[in-house]
Q: What sequence folds into this?
């Protein structure tokens, strides 16, 4: 049976594709949905790795692996698998791709002081974007699926998109509502995995110091204000 992802690619118009994705995610077999996401994400992840400097094996890569191994069993579907890559970048960044490919820069880990609890929240936030369908929805909304769904061209299209729009597209394309939802789910994931979810408040306290600095401009222009996120996180923590 042809996957819904291939059929999705034949539809015209971003709004139609977005609606079709929502329908397919609700009605198609879960393994087919996850496989479709993985096909998109795997090709794009390879492009990101090619375009980026990767951290050598060491403390940070091991930290991401350790955190990921603890978070993984608490995802709602055992079919979902996550891969963590550490980027060597002066720009603090963390982003994900459909299928569970998560990228975290060494500068974000340094901002967290290497604290496994804070790093766990960063990873869990990106995992939440995948679990909630935000990552795949972004691909659909930005008209990548039409071409990428054709057999044999996924990597070419993914690479072309990234070259044209830049990796910053992957960091900044969610709605503020999606960010709040990802924060809330990240709290639940980190708590379930035995991390301290309260450190999320400390993380956003740290981030507030950078809200008006040029290096962080693109991040804060598309994310909710830190103070607002702290307030919502506190409410979520009270209800855990």
A:
């Amino acid at each position: 049976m042809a996957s819904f992802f291939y059929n999705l690619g034949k539809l015209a118009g971003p709004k139609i594709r977005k609606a079709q994705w929502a329908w397919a995610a609700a009605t198609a077999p879960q393994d087919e949905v996850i496989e479709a996401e993985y096909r998109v994400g795997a090709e794009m992840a390879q492009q990101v790795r090619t375009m980026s400097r990767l951290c050598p094996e060491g403390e940070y890569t091991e930290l991401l692996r350790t955190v990921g191994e603890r978070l993984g069993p608490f995802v709602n579907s055992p079919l979902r698998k996550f891969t963590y890559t550490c980027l060597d970048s002066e720009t603090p960044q963390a982003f994900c791709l459909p299928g569970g490919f998560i990228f975290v820069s060494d500068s974000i880990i340094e901002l967290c002081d290497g604290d496994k609890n804070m790093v766990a929240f960063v990873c869990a936030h990106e995992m939440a974007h995948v679990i909630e369908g935000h990552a795949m929805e972004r691909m659909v909304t930005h008209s990548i699926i039409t071409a990428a769904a054709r057999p044999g061209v996924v990597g070419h299209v993914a690479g072309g998109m990234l070259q044209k729009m830049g990796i910053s597209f992957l960091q900044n394309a969610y709605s503020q509502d999606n960010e709040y939802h990802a924060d809330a789910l990240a709290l639940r994931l980190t708590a379930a995995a035995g991390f301290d979810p309260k450190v999320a408040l400390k993380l956003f306290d740290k981030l507030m110091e950078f809200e008006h600095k040029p290096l962080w401009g693109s991040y804060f222009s598309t994310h909710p204000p830190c103070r607002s996120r702290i307030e919502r996180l506190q409410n979520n923590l009270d209800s855990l």
